[in-house]
Q: What sequence folds into this?
C-alpha cells in the first residue's frame, strides 16, 4: 500500500542571522516542486480551525511566519500532529493527505506555498469521501 505520509517532511530553511533581524528564504530546490501560488492566513480568531480537506494533486509547504499552530495530518491510515512555531522550518504536505489546522496562537500567520494555482476541483472537502478515495487509490 502506498503510504503518502512517508513524504510528509519538515524542511529547514536557511536562516541568515543579523543584529538587524533574521532573514529566511524559500527558493528553487529547497522545496520539491515549482511554486505556482503563495497565500497566507492571518487575523485568525481564537479557537478558529482551518483546513479540513485534502488535495488530489496539489502539494503544499506551510510555514508559521509568526506565532504557532498545530497541523493534524491523516493519510487514511493514521493521524499525527505537527506543531509549527518557527519561521525557518516548514512542513511539506504531499497530495492525498487530510489536514486540519488548529490551536492558532494570538498573532499567528500561516504562509502556504503551493505547487498549483487555486482549483476547487482539486479539493476533497468531505472526510468520508477522502477515506473512500484512499481505499480506491492505495490498492
Ligand atoms: P479554504 O480552502 O476553505 O481555506 P482553508 O483551507 O485555509 O481553511 O478557502 C477559503 C476560501 O478562499 C474559499 O472560498 C476558497 C478561497 N480561496 C481562493 O479563492 N484562492 C485560494 O488560493 C485559496 C487557498 C482559497
A:
Amino acid at each position: 500500500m502506498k503510504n503518502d505520509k512517508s513524504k510528509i517532511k519538515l524542511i529547514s530553511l536557511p536562516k541568515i542571522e543579523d543584529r538587524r533581524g533574521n532573514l529566511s528564504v524559500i527558493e528553487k530546490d529547497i522545496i520539491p516542486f515549482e511554486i505556482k501560488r503563495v497565500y497566507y492566513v492571518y487575523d485568525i480568531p481564537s479557537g478558529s480551525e482551518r483546513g479540513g480537506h485534502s488535495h488530489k494533486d496539489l502539494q503544499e509547504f506551510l510555514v508559521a511566519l509568526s506565532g504557532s499552530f498545530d497541523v493534524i495530518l491523516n493519510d487514511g491510515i493514521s493521524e499525527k500532529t505537527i506543531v509549527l512555531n518557527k519561521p525557518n522550518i516548514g512542513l511539506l504536505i504531499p497530495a492525498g493527505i487530510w489536514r486540519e489546522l488548529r490551536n492558532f496562537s494570538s498573532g499567528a500567520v500561516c504562509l502556504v506555498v503551493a505547487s498549483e494555482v487555486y482549483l476547487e476541483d482539486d479539493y476533497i472537502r468531505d472526510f468520508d469521501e477522502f477515506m473512500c478515495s484512499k481505499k480506491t487509490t492505495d490498492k
Summary: The mean pLDDT is 94.
